[in-house]
Structures are given as structure tokens and as C-alpha cells.
Specification:
The protein has helices spanning 23-40, 43-59, 63-80, 83-99, 103-120, 123-140, 143-160, 163-179, 183-200, 203-221, 224-241, 244-260, 264-280, 284-300, 305-322, 327-337. With 348 residues, it is an all-alpha fold. The longest helix is centred in the middle third of the chain and has 19 residues, at 203-221. The chain starts with 22 loop residues before the first helix and ends in an 11-residue tail after the last helix.
């Protein structure tokens, strides 16, 4: 049985904040408590308030502010001798690095966070850090290496009855199944995640689960209208919490659904919107994926074939540069889908 979802990254005087608190509210409260703790010389409280500030900035897409905040939280925690707070700060930094497309750095910071969390006896930050490592590997396409870690974390979360982490693990494993063509298994896991998130009042997890369900309904069943309905429901949850990153990925998925349905003009418009959102938050992976959708939509609307080929070749290099092992395969599929010949060397 799962209880209500909670946000362990909101610590110290901020533990009363809900997992669903709007991020602008989290940022305001975190900044207020951080300043008060600094004035009082309360380093532990400052480190833990600073963590909430870093996470609010990150989720709002304010990358430079998030980078300064997690580093300040880490330095303050180290000065206070608070190993667990140091681990949480590194977790935030690693998560930000993944968001920015710096995947090797993300892996290193999250590994350090997991080690410090274990040393401090904080099973939650250890679990979150290992989860971050698993997600980083999944994003890179290294499914074989991280599937067992996902499943281990799912078992641990179920045993503790921790709804939010259970939802995350289910969604990660479901995404691996979706990407390897096991659509029915993926759908069942996204469905379970959505149910647990709804009962635990985890709006963020629920929005991501709905996005996964919409994807399967579109790619497996061709059920465009139901997929769009689910994405609209997820979007409302993202907007309520100011989840700008999740909202951008929601829009990118809406573009995917419209593209699969042959609604290329609508897809072009929504991909362009998602691209602007990703660029505004310095999110290179999302930027590249939205640009890929935009290139494909424009090609379907009659864009010059040579220009499309040049764009796809540039995207192949960009995706590989981010560290996405399956990036080149995605671009090669786009060449075939659009009836284009890949330039020599693209398939390396």
C-alpha cells in the first residue's frame, strides 16, 4: 500500500511543502529560508534550503541559477560537515547535468552522491542518486546496463511503499520496453504508474505516465484523439506546477502524435513551440529531438530535399555528441522514412 507522495528534496524548514507545490512558490519559500539561515549562521539549514532553491530553478529551466544554487548548497553542507546534505546537493547537480546534456558529468556526480548517501546512511538520497544514474544510462540508450538497476530500485521502492519512487521506476522500465518494441508491457507499466501516481497525488509522476500512455496509444493503436486527450490532461498538471521541462517534452510528444497521424502542419507548429521551449532552458537533448521532428514535418510539407538531408546529417552529429547511442539510428530511420539517401559516413 502506498501513502501520499512526498518531496524529500524539500528539507529543513521546507518539509511542509507539497510535492505538488508550484515551483514559483518553492523558489520564493526556499530563497526566504536560505537568506534567514545565512543571517543566523545556520549552515545545515542553509544547505538544505539551498537544495530546494536549486531544484526549483532547475525545474523552471533557469539553468545558470540552478548551477550556482546546487554548488552553493554543496559548499555550505561541506562546511557544516553534513554528508547527507552534500549528497543531496550532488544529486541536484547531477540531475542538472543530465538535463543540460552533459551525460558523463551527470553519471560522475550521481555516483558520488550515491556513495555519500550510503556513507551518511540516507537511503533516500542513495536511492534517488542510483535512480538518476539509471535514467542517465537509459537516456543514452544503454538499456542492457541499466535495466537491472531500474528493477532493483523498483523493488526497493515497492518494499518501502514509496509511491513517487515506484512511479519513477515503473515509468523508466516502461520506456525501455516501449523503445524495444514491447508495447503491451510498456502500456501496462505506464498504466500502473498512472494509477499509483493519481492515488498518491503525485501530479508530476502522473503527467509523465499519461505522456507514456499517449505515446503507446499513438504508435501501437493509431488512436490519435485519445492520445491527444491524455496529453492535454498531462499538460494541465504541468502548467499547475510550472513544470516547464515536462511541459516541453509533452509538447514534443504531441508533435510526435500529430506527425504519426499525417497532420504535418499541426506537427510542424507544435515542434517549433517545443523547440523554442527547450532552447529557452538550455536543454540540448530536447532541442535536438524537437528539431528532428521539425525537420521531418517540413520535409513532409515539401521542403527542399538537399536542405533536409543537410539538416539530418547535422542532427546525427549533434545527437551523437550529446552521448545518445541511438541518436544516429533515429536519424537513419528518418532518412528512410522520407525516402532520402544518407550521406556517406552517416551510418558509421
Amino acid at each position: 500500500m502506498y501513502g501520499k507522495a512526498f518531496a524529500p528534496e524539500y528539507q529543513g524548514a521546507l518539509t511542509s511543502l507539497s510535492v505538488n507545490s508550484p515551483l514559483t512558490d518553492v523558489l520564493a519559500a526556499g530563497t526566504e529560508h536560505l537568506r534567514a539561515a545565512e543571517r543566523a549562521g545556520a549552515r545545515q539549514e542553509a544547505a538544505r534550503s539551498g537544495l530546494a532553491v536549486a531544484e526549483a530553478h532547475r525545474r523552471l529551466g533557469q539553468v545558470a541559477d540552478a548551477d550556482r544554487a546546487w554548488k552553493a548548497s554543496y559548499r555550505t553542507a561541506r562546511e557544516a560537515g553534513d554528508t547527507a546534505a552534500m549528497a543531496w546537493a550532488l544529486w541536484s547537480g547531477g540531475t542538472l547535468a543530465r538535463q543540460r546534456g552533459a551525460l558523463p558529468l551527470a553519471w560522475r556526480l550521481l555516483r558520488l552522491a550515491a556513495d555519500l548517501g550510503e556513507r551518511a546512511g540516507d537511503v533516500v538520497v542513495r536511492g534517488y542518486s542510483l535512480a538518476g544514474m539509471a535514467e542517465t544510462g537509459r537516456i543514452q540508450g544503454d538499456y542492457e546496463a541499466v535495466t537491472a538497476l531500474h528493477e532493483q530500485l523498483l523493488a526497493e521502492a515497492r518494499r518501502r511503499g514509496e509511491a513517487r519512487h515506484t512511479v519513477w521506476a515503473l515509468e523508466g522500465i516502461a520506456q525501455i520496453h516501449r523503445n524495444t518494441g514491447a508495447y503491451d508491457t510498456a502500456y501496462a507499466m505506464f498504466e500502473e504508474a498512472a494509477d499509483i501516481a493519481a492515488r498518491a497525488d503525485d501530479r508530476r509522476g502522473h503527467a509523465w505516465a499519461l505522456r507514456g500512455l499517449a505515446d503507446i496509444l499513438s504508435v501501437r493503436d493509431g488512436n490519435t484523439e485519445r492520445a491527444l486527450e491524455l496529453l492535454s490532461e498531462a499538460e494541465a498538471g504541468c502548467r499547475a506546477m510550472n513544470l516547464l521541462g515536462a511541459l516541453a517534452y509533452n509538447h514534443k510528444m504531441r508533435g510526435n502524435v500529430l506527425y504519426r497521424a499525417g497532420r504535418y502542419e499541426e506537427a510542424r507548429e507544435i515542434y517549433a513551440q517545443a523547440l523554442a521551449e527547450f532552447e529557452g532552458m538550455d536543454e540540448p537533448r530536447g532541442t535536438a529531438l524537437a528539431r528532428l521532428g521539425l525537420v521531418k514535418s517540413r520535409a513532409r510539407l515539401g521542403r527542399d530535399r538537399a536542405e533536409t538531408t543537410a539538416d539530418l546529417d547535422a542532427l546525427a552529429r549533434e545527437l551523437e555528441g550529446i552521448g545518445l547511442r541511438h541518436g544516429r539510428a533515429m536519424v537513419l530511420r528518418a532518412y528512410g522514412e522520407l525516402g532520402l539517401t544518407a550521406p556517406e559516413g552517416t551510418a558509421r
